Amino acid sequence: MTATxxxxxxxxxxxxxxxxxxxxxxxxxxxxxxxAAQILDQIARGVEDPGLKHSSPTHVGLELSAxxxxxxxxxxxxxxxxxxxxxxxxxxxxxxxxxVLA
Length: 102
What we know:
Blueprint: H1 24-47, H2 57-101
Helix pairs in contact: 1-2
């Protein structure tokens, strides 16, 4: 194994955060989703170790599974979230511009 530095991730508990506003439940769900998705990064960092490259079929399977999970998250989940947030921002801007013009 090679000597790699282990990153230190911030300790946070998203269940203790209080969200306010009309989309509080949605923001809470997004926070929990993003917090849970950190495991993909941790697995990818473990799989990237050059000393373990192609050492066993289990490692190769883990690498493929992590890659598929990351592609799914990036292609579907992130695209959906960004599209949804852009729609909410558009609505917010329209309401704000109507308020300013009124």
